[in-house]
Amino acid sequence: MKMCSIATAIAALDIGYGNLKALGLRPGASEPDVIKLPIGAAPLEQAPKALGGGYDLRGGERVTINGLPWVAGTDPQILQGFTRQADPSYIYSPEYLALYYAALSRLDYDHIGILVTGLPCDQFDGPDSRVIRQRLSERLKGEHQISENRRVKVDRVLVLAQPMGTYASLFHDQDTANDGRTILIIDPGFYSVDWVLMQGGSVRGGTAQTNPQATGRILELAARQISENHGGAQLSVNRLEAAFRNGQGTMQLGIHTVHYRNYIDQAAASVSRQVMAAILSSLRDLGDVIDCVILTGGGAELFEPAAKAQFKSSQVISTPDPVMANAEGYLWLAHRAAMSAERQAGQAAAQQRRA
Questions:
Q1: Nearest one of 289, 316, 132, 94 to 210, comparing CA atoms
Q2: Is the domain of 203 the same as that of 228?
Q3: Do 107 and 253 lie in a common domain?
Q4: Which of 3, 184, 196, 265 is the most exposed place for a label (fewest CB within 10 A)?
Q5: Least confident piece of the model among 89-93, 220-224, 304-308
């Protein structure tokens, strides 16, 4: 993922409901810095105590929210009383801001010229979407006291529909403006499945939509079934998600060794069929075949069988790195915006010299 050198650092931010993803490019660099952290965020007092004293952050970052110490980017399982945010108000929560600060801290830039991030489609293109995008942009830009001794300045924030990041990551070096292809991006995350139809390099109106039946619902159903089949032993969604995220073949549930993946696949088959039906319904007036269906996001592999079954006349593919694909695209767009700004500044300076 090589890029041309730029004068000011840029960044891409994808704060999901399952993972925090961020990329950044320093001035003079051609390869980005890549950040991927768990979604746990809470006041520091909710973190476990280390045996030698202090708090055990488990790889997270210590940040400052409203003057108080927090930990962010850590495993949700270790945080006492942690409740995952799973509604549209998430972007206004202190947890979201703490994760943003964790990304800034880990990138270790003092000044960012352009930052690109995304919203679920129903917030990007739904009621009050303009206000929502503006509020998020205003919240992320400016000067931030991210910890006791660190301040970071962000000049400009661009907000997109989340699946547009994947489109940019795959087609940034191709001319798609005139080829006429219809490309459907489906992004199963933890809280929602977002989709958008791209044609001629642009979003086709009314096709940026969201369905709440996503990976979280699959894990919820699977955890319930595992518990029922193993003597009622309780299993939290956070614990099941951690095993799934880490690629473990089995998990220990009390005295039981559980081959949990079968349960997830069964729940995914049911949920993904319902979601694909909703997607097809939203596109019923399209009047053209969808040329390519691209699956992205942390739940891409769970939804791929249903996508292939429903879109039999389309090419159905998953991105090489579904978790990072949106963030990668955001960085390409930030890079393009930075290069454009530098060209304009150079042209303005040349005109002043000629004058």
A1: 132
A2: no
A3: no
A4: 265
A5: 89-93
Q: Mapped to the 3 state alphabet, what secondary structure does the chain carry?
A: CCCCCCCCCEEEEEECCCEEEEEEECCCCCCCEEEEEECEEEEHHHCCECCCCCECCCCCEEEEECCEEEEEEECHHHCCCCCCCCCHHHHHCHHHHHHHHHHHHHHCCCEEEEEEEEECHHHHCCCCHHHHHHHHHHHHCEEEEEECCEEEEEEEEEEEECHHHHHHHHHCCCCCCCCCCEEEEEEECCCCEEEEEEECCEECCCCCEEECCCHHHHHHHHHHHHHHHCCCCCCCHHHHHHHHHHCCCCEEECCEEECCHHHHHHHHHHHHHHHHHHHHHHCCCCCCCCCEEEECCCCHHHHHHHHHHHCCCCEEEECCCCCCHHHHHHHHHHHHHHHHHHHHHHHHHHHHHHC
Tens of pLDDT along 58-93?
A: 999 999 999 999 999 998 888 998 887 777 889 999
Q: Who has greater pLDDT, 348 or 128?
A: 128
Q: Which residues of 249-284 are buried (b: 16+ CB within 10 A; e: fewer)?
A: eebebeeeebebbebbeebbeebbeebbeebeebbe
* 205 and 232 belong to one structural domain: no
Does residue 288 lie within any of the structural domains? yes
96 and 54 housed in the same domain:
yes
Is position 274 within any domain?
no
Amino acid at 213: Q
Q: Whole domain around residue 229: which residue ranges?
A: 215-262
Is the pLDDT assigned to residue 315 strictly greater than 90?
Answer: yes
Backbone angles phi, psi at 179, to 5 degrees: -90, -10
